[in-house]
Specification:
The chain is an alpha+beta fold and 192 residues long. The chain has eight helices and six strands. Helix content is 48%, strand content 18%. The protein has a six-stranded antiparallel beta sheet.
Length: 192
């Protein structure tokens, strides 16, 4: 992560918030009164809002992952009970091996899987494939993928490619959709 990225307004604000959380709760410090318990609750609520704000920024997924890892380590070391909260969240989600956009949690597996994937825009017309991952760098595009039903696990067929016009036509769920080059490049697929 670059120094510029770390000092950007949303990240600097988040970092400052974590410093205040860290100073309020030390490792193994018992919560001694109702005010401390209330402060912890507010800190956790504020953290949830901040993490959702990170998701809605145009930061790269690598940058977001580094922020999340730093946040998780800070919280685990600073807030009593956080490791068990972290485990409960993982359990509630069913111990997923992928994020909702298809990216593996295990980075070693992610690197190995990269060899099998290519953007939809690299396929030849008539090729069948399955969407495995969605590009996360553009929040608007990511929302568009979901609105159009172009999500991990969806089978697609590239019907036509018109790169000069920046347009592709794909068959999805019995229908046909026209998608732009940017969208086709952001759908990582595995050939059938």
């Amino acid at each position: 992560m670059t120094d510029t990225a770390l000092n950007s307004p949303p990240i600097a604000s988040i970092a400052q918030r974590f410093k205040s959380i860290r100073t309020g709760f030390r490792v193994n410090k018992p919560l001694q009164d109702a005010a401390s318990v209330q402060m912890l609750s507010l800190a956790r609520t504020n953290l949830g809002v901040r993490l959702r704000a990170i998701d809605e920024t145009s930061l790269t997924s690598d940058c977001q992952k580094k922020i999340y890892a730093t946040v998780a380590e800070t919280l685990k070391a600073s807030i009593p009970g956080f490791p068990t909260l972290d485990n409960r969240i993982d359990e509630k989600l069913g111990h997923p091996d992928r994020c909702p956009h298809g990216w593996p949690v295990d980075t070693v597996f992610e690197q190995a899987e990269n060899e099998e994937l290519e953007p939809l825009s690299a396929l030849e017309p008539g090729s069948d494939a399955t969407i495995v991952r969605l590009a996360e760098h553009d929040g608007d595009l990511l929302h568009w993928f979901y609105d159009e039903g172009l999500v991990p696990g969806t089978a697609v067929e590239l019907r036509a490619a018109e790169p000069a016009a920046g347009q592709f036509r794909v068959a999805v769920d019995g229908g046909e959709k026209a998608i732009g080059e940017k969208a086709a490049a952001g759908l990582f697929v595995k050939r059938a």
